Amino acid sequence: MGVTKGPLEELIEKAGGCAVIDGGFATQLEALGADINDPLWSALCLISNPHLIKKVHMQYLEAGADVLITSSYQATIPGFLSKGLSIEEAEKLLQKSVKLAIEARDNFWTHLQKNPKDGYNRALVAASIGSYGAYLADGSEYSGGYGPDIELDKLKDFHRRRLQVLASAEPDLLAFEAIPNKLEAQAIVELLNEEKVNIPSWICFSSVDGKHTPSGHSFKECLEILNCCERVPAIGVNCTSPHFIDKLIHELRKFTKKAIVVYPNSGEIWDGRAKKWMPSECFGDGNFEALALKWHESGANLIGGCCRTTPNTIQAITKALKSKR
Ligand SMILES: C[S+](C)CC[C@H](N)C(=O)O
Ligand SMILES: N[C@@H](CCS)C(=O)O
Ligand SMILES: [Zn+2]
Question: What is the mean pLDDT of the chain?
Answer without folding.
Answer: 96
